[in-house]
Amino acid sequence: MREGLRERKKRETRERIADIAMGLFMARGFDNVTVAEVARAADVSVNTVFNYFSTKEDLFADRQEMAVDLPQKVLREREPGESVVRAFRRDYLDAIDTRHWRHGLNLGSDVFARIVGASPALVARLRQIHEEREEGLARMLAEELDASPDDLSPRLVAAHILNTTRILTGHAVARMLAGEGWETIGPDLREQAEKAFDLLESGLGDYGPGR
User: Structural domains in the chain?
Assistant: First the structure.
């Protein structure tokens, strides 16, 4: 469906406000910037900011809806006969190779992590997003595999996979924060990821093959 002029202008305004807010957060820290200051810098009213973002945290996590949906997207797009673990292995290794933001491996992810770590409000928001990602993936697994309400397997599988990718990314970002270059982080992360997904494969095996 083609985007209309009104929708395009709203999207561009939203993106501009979020970009300006992120610039201020990077320069001064999340807790030291007010919504009123973001509004002034973006040349809009405070009400306009809140029309697009319900909370100040939403200004920072403006991709949260996409982030919550990404694990379900991996599940939806797995190949026929491909298990859930193999699909996430393929997706994570691709993110390493392309340094894609979907797994927090992009350029600037260390700056993002530093801002989050300095703000208890953002730490809480990122934890909430992780829980929503896990719940969404578990729900989709349960629906697709017709699991009974008492079957904990979808929740366990979702938790194992997403905690694995979170730990891998956290390890890589910690090394970025310490000043290490991607030329050494990347190859080692790929090796660590292969080992981690081997462990998942040995435990979860062919759970949930694509149809």
Answer: 5-55 (1.10.10.60), 64-203 (1.10.357)
Record the tokens describing residue 122, joined without a space: 């953002």
Q: How many residues does the chain have?
A: 211
Alpha carbon distance 47, 51 (integer Å): 6
Query: What is this structure's pTM?
Result: 0.84
The DSSP secondary structure of 163-177, one letter per residue, reads: HHHHHHHHHHHHHHH
How buried is 183 (Cβ within 10 angstroms: 0-12 exposed, 13-18 middle, 19+ buried)? exposed
Instruction: Report which of 174, 72, 86 is spatially closest to residue 94, judged by C-alpha positions.
Output: 86
pLDDT digits (tens, 9 = 90+) for 87-112: 999 999 999 999 999 899 999 899 99
